[in-house]
Specification:
single chain; 179 residues; alpha+beta; SH3 type barrels; 5-stranded antiparallel sheet; 9 strands; 28% strand; elongated
Length: 179
C-alpha cells in the first residue's frame, strides 16, 4: 500500500514536472494569477500602462550676437581693427581675416569695410555696434559712447594749467601793486 501511494505521488510529481527532491515554486511566481483572478466578478480587461505625457519645451530663443568696432590701429604698412563682442572679448583682425562671419575688406583711419560673402557689405565707423538680432541678419544698431581720447584729456589739462598760471600771475601783480 505504501508502495502504491509512493508510486502515485511519483507519478503525480512527474506529471507536474517536480521531482521528489525539489520544492514547489514560491507563491510569488503566482502573483499574476492572484492579481488577474479569472474568477473575480469585478475584473476588468487588461490595459497596458499609459506612457507618461511628454512635456514639450518650447525651442530656446535665438541669442543675438553683437560686435562693436572699438578702434583701428594703423602703423607703417600694417592696419588692425579692434572688435569687442557681446561678451566683452576683444578681437583684432587685419584685412582678409574673419570676425563673426564677416571678412575685413578694408581698414581706414575712421572705420572698416566688412563683407559677408558676396551678399552683403557693411561700412562701419569706430564705435558702431552691429547685431544679428538672433536671426543671422546683421545690421547696425547704434553707437557706443566713447571715452575722450588721450589727446583731448591732455589738451584739457594744459588749458586748465594755463588758466591756473594766469590766475596766479594776476594775484601776484595785485599784491605787488598793493591792491
Amino acid at each position: 500500500m505504501i508502495r502504491r501511494i509512493l508510486g502515485t505521488m511519483a507519478l503525480a510529481g512527474a506529471l507536474v514536472g517536480l521531482r521528489a527532491s525539489e520544492e514547489p515554486p514560491p507563491f510569488s511566481d503566482y502573483k499574476l494569477v492572484v492579481e488577474r483572478n479569472v474568477f473575480n466578478a469585478s475584473r476588468m480587461p487588461y490595459r497596458a500602462a499609459e506612457p507618461a505625457p511628454v512635456e514639450v519645451k518650447p525651442a530656446p530663443r535665438p541669442v543675438a550676437k553683437t560686435i562693436t568696432l572699438a578702434g583701428v590701429f594703423i602703423a607703417d604698412e600694417r592696419a588692425l581693427a579692434l572688435f569687442v563682442d557681446g561678451g566683452r572679448t576683444c578681437t583684432q583682425a587685419a584685412v582678409g581675416q574673419s570676425v563673426s562671419g564677416f571678412t575685413v575688406a578694408e581698414i581706414t583711419s575712421t572705420g572698416v569695410l566688412l563683407k559677408l560673402g558676396d551678399e552683403k557689405e557693411l561700412r562701419i565707423s569706430v564705435g558702431d555696434r552691429l547685431s544679428d538680432g538672433g536671426t543671422g541678419n546683421w545690421a547696425q544698431v547704434g553707437q557706443v559712447e566713447q571715452a575722450p581720447s588721450a589727446q583731448t584729456v591732455i589738451d584739457e589739462r594744459k588749458e586748465a594749467d594755463k588758466a591756473s598760471v594766469l590766475q596766479k600771475m594776476m594775484e601776484r601783480r595785485k599784491r605787488e601793486l598793493g591792491q
